[in-house]
Amino acid sequence: MTNPVEPSRRVGFDTWGPHALLAVAVVTAAGAAHAVGMTRDAMYAAGALAAAAVPLQLCLGLARRNTPGPNRTSAVLYFLRWALGFVLAWLNPFFAFYAVAGYYSADRHLPRRLVMPGLVLTAITMAGSQIGGLPPHGPVSWTGFFVVFAANVGMVTLFTRFARQEQALTQGQADTIAELERTNTALQEALEENAALHAQLLVQAREAGVADERRRLAAEIHDTIAQGLTGIIAQLQVVANAPDLDTARTHLERASSLARHSLGEARRSVHNLAPVALAADGLPEALKKTVTDWGERTGARADFTVTGTTEHLHEEVSATLLRISQEALSNAARHARPTRVGVTLSFMGDEVTLDIRDDGTGFDPAAVPERTHAGGFGLGGMRARAERIAGSLTVESEPGQGTAVSARVPLVRDDR
Amino acid sequence: MTAETLISLLIVDDHPVVRDGLRGMFESAPGFRVLGEAANGVEAVARATALDPDVILMDLRMPGGSGVDAIRELTRLGVRARILVLTTYDTDSDTLPAIEAGATGYLLKDAPRDELFTAVRAAAEGRTVLSPAVASRLVHAVRTPRQPGNEPLSGREREVLALVAKGTSNREIARELFISEATVKTHLTHLYTKLGVNDRAAAVAVGYDRGILG
């Protein structure tokens, strides 16, 4: 991307600068006309040439507007303007104000190879003016001319080099920015493609999972239920043709036991389909999580303690205790406004107790309606759950003294 | 069994074979009378209010009205009947909502005859029907009683004994350990058994003797 950006301010100066410089040159030259010893003819000539400079400059502007960048027309016009400036400066050194335009517009009007010659020519005009006017008179004046000319050329070369370096740097920066933009676009595209791929991968994984599960189910149905049913049919066919009651009874019992076995297998495979979090974590872990979450939610201090030797409880016992603790904690949060809650799970050989104690407002247990036939929720529901597994539930509370809910259930081990 | 103690039943299941089997089982046994059958939850509510049975045997998964909805509706209507859920799977997701909706208990569909009869009788008398999975294991546990002897005290039991030795009351022990008084008493019962004593004073004495205290 090579698109050197020209600041609009610079364009404005290019258009109007030479006119302004010409005006300054005309005014100063006219003021100094007698001082520099201009003849009347020279004054007329200078006036005519200065007048000619205006359309020349306009032509130069037009040439640049029609074809941006240096071209043959602009180069010809540049040298014409130089010639004009040289003659004017010869007639009156103050026209150097006008001639100086050659310095800053050379790189704009001239092709690259002509820039240095253009600048050197301009330096001749400038050096001439700087020593007080052309031509130099005598060897001292000539020496001065060459020294000043050399200094002009040196400075012009130096500044030109600086300007080119700066332009290269600017171009480099512009290129870097463009490159960054391209990279950004590419990155964005890559990200989008990546997201699409990821989504596709998820779909494939899910489909693969579903397919796997179907295959597993099909295999299980074949291995358990279908085999069992085949066996049952075989046994029942024997019963249909049985010669005596004893034979029939024996085969009926076999059929019945086969059916029971198959049902057990079916239960197990359904169970595997929906693994309970509790089974994976065990009751203490599940309780700990429940208590921690409750503490974070309510902002109250919540401790969980296990005492005795931890054992893996039967799923129904674990589920019951977990539900009771959730219910009790939710009651505490709703009614008691406690600053502290303690949940304690105690393993005691052949039984387990779960205590949920808080330091909240408490209540009068006698004022709470006893368990209704409906079972339902709240204290009644908790008690019903505990009794379902041959356990009991106690509630201890007094207004202002906090509440302790205690479930005491038999320790039934998980023997699966 | 006299006519007064005859237990009337309503059988709710979407499978005619299962209804037929259950009806046959109960009609062949003394003390039960099957008043009717229903094939879904909606029908069950209508039949239950019309027939007023003692016990309803209720399936949970049925097309055209689930068992849990029917139980909830019957509870709301204040129907006298006790509801026993008959289910194929003993998973929480099925049975807990049924219990919460007001069912007295649940049984597995392949429960042996005697277990089924016992559960129905218990339900009719308003007794708790134990979870079948737990009940069978409890029976097993009762058959193999633990030997009371010189079992070591658990950490918590030692804590309780130490507080007892300081003359702390159950109520204060409960406050100290931030547990219920009921559990403190349970700890004491276990502790007494392990130490072979009957009261606090003896427990403290044996505690010192065995070097558990002090």
Q: Can you describe this structure?
A:
Chain A: It holds the Pfam family HisKA_3. Chain A: It comes from Streptomyces roseochromogenus subsp. oscitans DS 12.976. Chain A: Keywords: Kinase, Membrane, Transferase, Transmembrane, Transmembrane helix, Two-component regulatory system. The complex is a heterodimer of chains A (416) and B (214). Chain A is of the alpha+beta class and 416 residues long. Chain A is built from twelve helices and five strands. Chain A is 70% helix and 9% strand. Chain A is elongated, with a radius of gyration of 52 Å. The N terminus of chain A is likely disordered. Chain B has 214 residues and is an alpha/beta fold. Chain B has two domains: 137 residues, Response regulator (Rossmann fold, 3-Layer(aba) Sandwich); 56 residues, Winged helix-like DNA-binding domain superfamily/Winged helix DNA-binding domain (Arc Repressor Mutant, subunit A, Orthogonal Bundle), CATH 1.10.10. Helices cover 52% and strands 13% of the residues of chain B. Chain B contains ten helices and five strands. The longest helix of chain B has 15 residues. At the A-B interface, helix 8, helix 11, strand 2, strand 3 and helix 12 of A face helix 4, helix 6 and helix 9 of B.
Write the layout of secondary structure elements.
The complex is a heterodimer of chains A (416) and B (214).
Chain A: H1 8-32, H2 40-66, H3 72-91, H4 96-99, H5 101-109, H6 112-130, H7 138-240, H8 245-273, H9 277-281, H10 283-298, E1 301-307, H11 315-336, E2 340-348, E3 351-358, H12 378-388, E4 392-397, E5 403-410
Parallel strand pairs in A: 1-2
Antiparallel strand pairs in A: 2-3, 3-5, 4-5
Chain B: E1 7-12, H1 16-27, E2 32-38, H2 41-51, E3 55-59, H3 67-77, E4 82-87, H4 92-101, E5 105-108, H5 113-124, H6 132-143, H7 155-165, H8 170-177, H9 181-195, H10 200-209
Parallel strand pairs in B: 1-2, 1-3, 3-4, 4-5
Helix pairs in contact in B: 2-3, 7-9, 7-10, 8-9, 9-10
GO molecular function, one term (chain A): phosphorelay sensor kinase activity
Domain Histidine kinase (chain A): 321-413
Protein name (chain A): Histidine kinase domain-containing protein
